[in-house]
Amino acid sequence: MSVDVASCTPLVRKALTAEQAADLSRVLKAVADPARLRLLSLVAAHEGGEACVCDLTEPLGLSQPTVSHHLKVLVDAGLLTRDKRGVWAWFRLVPGALDALAAALSTAGSRDAAPSSG
Amino acid sequence: MSVDVASCTPLVRKALTAEQAADLSRVLKAVADPARLRLLSLVAAHEGGEACVCDLTEPLGLSQPTVSHHLKVLVDAGLLTRDKRGVWAWFRLVPGALDALAAALSTAGSRDAAPSSG
């Protein structure tokens, strides 16, 4: 049930359809959580851009099952990859996924890119 | 209780603190809703980049109180301005707010901007 973040429609180029808004909100709901934002941030900042649950529980101060749940939400949203090696699963950012989400929110290229005052 | 979106800390430059993650998630929660994404999109696409509730209820298929509630959430999140003129309040995008949110999610400038494969 992974989402293709790159297919999300830019918000302000023209009015979103209900379906486009539902797709984009699904990815945004996945990131709109303090623990999941910190997980994305910790994974990105970790050595090699990769981290396992064992690296993430202590900095977050959350239990391993809770961290695993949040990681699953981020994998399902198409924002993290999961690679099982031995005992642990290793997570890294899906290349381009956060940038695609950022691009969907950006007004660059729209008539609102340089709004006039007043 | 408006949020200063521009002050949100970029996600992937280095690991977010709990407070930074809470600030960013608050703005993301405001946009992580299909109706509110469509409202932002409709306001941006409307003539002059400005719309009143009267312009927004029909395209969304929602009641005026529901649309007004969603608009208030977006104003409180620092994403829309509200200007009362006569009978109606008029809404427009806060210049730069969506772009600041996009910048907080973007990996541009981080070591993950051009991730290697594997």
TrEMBL record, chains A, B:
<dbReference type="InterPro" id="IPR036388">
    <property type="entry name" value="WH-like_DNA-bd_sf"/>
</dbReference>
<keyword id="KW-0804">Transcription</keyword>
<dbReference type="GO" id="GO:0003677">
    <property type="term" value="F:DNA binding"/>
</dbReference>
<dbReference type="InterPro" id="IPR051081">
    <property type="entry name" value="HTH_MetalResp_TranReg"/>
</dbReference>
<dbReference type="InterPro" id="IPR011991">
    <property type="entry name" value="ArsR-like_HTH"/>
</dbReference>
<dbReference type="Pfam" id="PF01022">
    <property type="entry name" value="HTH_5"/>
</dbReference>
<dbReference type="InterPro" id="IPR036390">
    <property type="entry name" value="WH_DNA-bd_sf"/>
</dbReference>
<protein>
    <submittedName>
        <fullName>Transcriptional regulator, ArsR family</fullName>
    </submittedName>
</protein>
<dbReference type="InterPro" id="IPR001845">
    <property type="entry name" value="HTH_ArsR_DNA-bd_dom"/>
</dbReference>
<keyword id="KW-0238">DNA-binding</keyword>
<keyword id="KW-0805">Transcription regulation</keyword>
<dbReference type="GO" id="GO:0003700">
    <property type="term" value="F:DNA-binding transcription factor activity"/>
</dbReference>
<dbReference type="InterPro" id="IPR018334">
    <property type="entry name" value="ArsR_HTH"/>
</dbReference>
<feature type="domain" description="HTH arsR-type">
    <location>
        <begin position="16"/>
        <end position="113"/>
    </location>
</feature>
